[in-house]
Hints:
The structure holds two protein chains of two kinds. Chain A is α+β, with helices and mostly antiparallel strands.
Amino acid sequence: MALRLSERLQAIVFVGILIAAIAGLYATTQLIQPVPVRASAVHLVRLVVEGAGWSIEYAPLATMNNTAFGLLLEASAELGFPVAYVWYQIPQGVFVTAINGSVNGEGSRFWLYQVNGVYPSLAADHQALHDDDVVRWTFSASQDGM
Amino acid sequence: MRRGWRTVVEAGLGDTRTRILGVFLIIVAVVGTLLMHSYANIETVFAASLLAGSLLGRWWTILVPLTALAVLQPLEWSTTYVGYGLNAITGITFFVISGYVFVGFLGRRIRPRVLFRVKSVALLTTISVPVTIAYDLWTAFGEWYFITRPFGVGIRTVLEAQVPFTLYHLLSSLIFVPLFGTIFLFLHAYGWPARTPSATVADPDRE
């Protein structure tokens, strides 16, 4: 004969399973958060920022700012151009909204970054750099001309 | 002829209890999403759409998600995602609206007997997991096609980036579907004087 639980017991079991599922999911989200990049020296990295009709290049011999975002901020401080950004908590990461006065959305253009010609799937502050990497920030319009 | 038209509308919207619950679901969808605005993919439109389809049915299956999104989408495009072209806005909005309407229709299909029972809430909660994943896959495709594909980004990159957002969306569903499902089933069962004995049960513990 099958075990029949009272409504109250069913509720307790259901809530218990639900809490376990929520806790497990939350733990997973924390586990897959990108690990903060440990600061270390990188050499001969190059930053190229391409706006609409202007460009900036920055190529330190060595730097401790070994993320795509860190390098951008270092260049901003050294060369004196402004960078605007937003920090997100869920999921963690920085979102660059403006570089050198060019703001996301102007003329349907948006700031995108590549490392060695590839669009990463990480936020710029979690994208680690290695020796000889080239970081390119482009103020791009879509190819569809939206 | 006018009487026929009125009959159709009344049949579509249901009785007073159904209409009040439908409006309440719309308010839950809009207010909940706005309150959670700073947390990606933590929203209440999904739970409201699923409950509208499964518990209310009739026109509310479509009315709840459409009305909520009619308020939320213009806000999103004019604030968080300002600057996108009309083509992208139209395309993404189509995927979002169709996704939530699909959720409502799925809720209608798996509609449990409207009783204030643990099994009813458990069924809705369980079904919300694969439906959430399906919705996120659908909208991720739309975002890839209309937003990132024109910049040369591949679908694989978009799907990889979608993973943490889907996990948060699942969290949202597992919290809000049983929470609001319990509240609405309780209101449906006990919020108004019962018209028929089958609408309420005197002692839920008695099985």
